[in-house]
Amino acid sequence: MSALTDLLAFQRETEALAQVMGRLGWDQETVMPKGAAEQRSDEMGALESVLHARRTDPRVGEWLDNAEATTEAEAAQLRLIRRGYERAMKVPADLATALARTTSLAQGIWARARAADDVAHFLPTLEEVVNLRRQEAAALAGSDGTLYDALLDDYEPGMSGDEIAALFDRMRPRLVALRERVLGQGTPPKGLTGAFPEDRQLALAHEVAGVFGYDFLHGRIDQAVHPFSSGSGKDVRITTRVDEGEPLGCLYSTIHEVGHATYEQNIDDAYGLTALGQGVSMGVHESQSRIYENQLGRSAPFTGWLFNRMRAHFDDIGLHDQAAFHAAVNRVNAGFIRTEADEVHYNLHIMLRFDLERALISGDLAVADLEAAWNDRFEADFGVKVDRPSHGMLQDVHWSVGLFGYFPTYSLGNVYAGCLNEAMRRDIPDLDAHLAEGDPSAATFWLRERLQRHGGLRPPRETIMEATGGEISEAPLLDYLDAKFAAIYGV
Questions:
Q1: In a domain, 150, yes or no
Q2: In which domain, by residue range, is 180 found?
Q3: Among residues 29, 136, 257, 343, which one is catalytic?
Q4: How far apart are the first and last CA of the chain?
Q5: Is residue 358 a contact partner of residue 148, using CB atoms and an 8 Å limit?
Q6: How far apart are CA 215 and CA 209, in angstroms?
Q7: pTM for the whole thing?
Q8: 58 & 131 share domain
């Protein structure tokens, strides 16, 4: 057998084990008994120890030195396996195990603290998570690198914190100006009223997930504190959450997670359980969830169709025409919760988190001072005082599980989605007519063929540029937002 054959067979087993670990994470957030948290942390730590040993196995280095690619896909696999091997070799095994064990426990501690609005209960654990991630960052960065960039590279390879900061500096003035114009219009659009039972919300969520192409033969929808998507290939699961007073949260979190899930489901079957068999980066992943949720799901044509489905499921929703429903779905307000934020405010939420987590990792902000820093920044950016921790620093799961460097990929996903939407509408001039019939398949097919099926074949920036045929810029996103909200609010 050749070195390439041996390497790819070994990698396939490693990928399979990683999927098993992901399934344990899904179980922990959905159906695991609360009393199992400590045992689960030991299980996660043990499995991470096995995975780390495989990822640093000396044979991987030998195979990489001797393997020869004959196709584009083989060359891409070697590139990604080498990158993973070199990063894994820099992280001590005991540190990798400690991170897996600690973040598994931390997730449950965060959930309890969030439910009780008790920051003090969470801070010691967060301190430990930050310390471990800083150790990992130092190992990865070496003497020449930056701690935050080393972590960001896990989620968006090739991107730097300075590039993100420059992007945000360009975006912020137009976002703030748009917000001021919209909020200066006075009375906001009317919201939904009525009865929205859990079973009917979930029934509509399942219906809309199917409309957007989610394959239930290889997936399922469950509930979790924080909606997420998990898995790849033939087993891709999503979660949502239900508030019986506010059905749009369930509906649009479902559409968002379906964007993630269909990306994974639509990757070429030949790439299953290989280094190419998952989304290439979190920024590219977010481009799929955000374009499904916003440019498609919140568009006037699609909300026109959805208005009728809402009334079929819930009878009276307090709104009596499609235009009023479209305005309600896209209502702009300076709310506390990122996952419920409108498109005008969403990136401002991300900018806050990016600056705070970058300061945490660099050591410029102490964990003990995080709540005050969050509250001060939120009031400065949104003009509203945070009323309780679950509306502030405790609202997101990310820091409890060590995902430092993840947050900016949400805004990168929005930028990428803006570029994709511009190219897609150029190629499908009658897209709105399809959306008005509740049929986004022309768009989802375009995204599958242009981007999703390729998985990790190309680096993130190249993936977007190949799909759109142009350079990456924030301008399409900002132009889209200006035009959309000018039409809704008359500004």
A1: no
A2: 161-489
A3: 257
A4: 67
A5: yes
A6: 9
A7: 0.95
A8: yes
| Cα angle 339-129-400, degrees, rounded to a multiple of 5 | 20
Residue 27 CB partners (closer than 8 Å, separation 6+): none
pLDDT of residue 1: 62
Q: Which residues contact 203 (CB under 8 A, 6 or more apart)?
A: 313
The token duo for 126 is 């967060």
What whole-number distance in Å separates Cα of residue 425 and Cα of residue 441? 13
Q: Looking at the structure, tell me whether residues 259 and 377 fall in a common domain.
A: yes
Does 155 reside within a domain?
Answer: no
Residues 214 and 95 in one domain: no
pLDDT digits (tens, 9 = 90+) for 79-123: 999 999 999 999 999 999 999 999 999 999 999 999 999 999 999
pLDDT tens for each residue of 398-414:
999 999 999 999 999 99
User: Could you give the CA distance from residue 253 to residue 205 in angstroms, rounded to a whole number?
Assistant: 9
Residue 324: inside a domain: yes
Alpha carbon distance 458, 462 (integer Å): 6
Active site residue 343: no
Q: Are 447 and 288 in contact (CB under 8 A)?
A: yes
The total number of structural domains that make up the chain = 2
Q: What is the pLDDT of residue 405?
A: 97
Which pLDDT belongs to residue 392?
Answer: 97
What is the C-alpha R_g of the chain? 22
Q: Are residues 286 and 320 in the same domain?
A: yes
CB 415 within 8 A of CB 474: yes
Non-local CB neighbours of 486 within 8 Å, separated by 6+ positions: 181
Same domain, 312 and 398: yes
Q: Sign of the C-alpha dihedral, residues 318, 323, 325, 329?
A: negative
Sign of the Cα torsion 186, 190, 191, 193 reads positive
Using the 3D structure, point to which of 145, 171, 197 is the last residue of a domain: 145
- What's at 70, amino acid-wise? T
Whether residues 227 and 89 share a domain: the answer is no
Q: What angle do the packed helices 58-66 and 72-90 form, to 10 degrees?
A: 150
Task: Kindly state whether residues 139 and 190 are assigned to the same domain.
Answer: no
Distance of alpha carbon 393 from alpha carbon 390, whole angstroms: 7
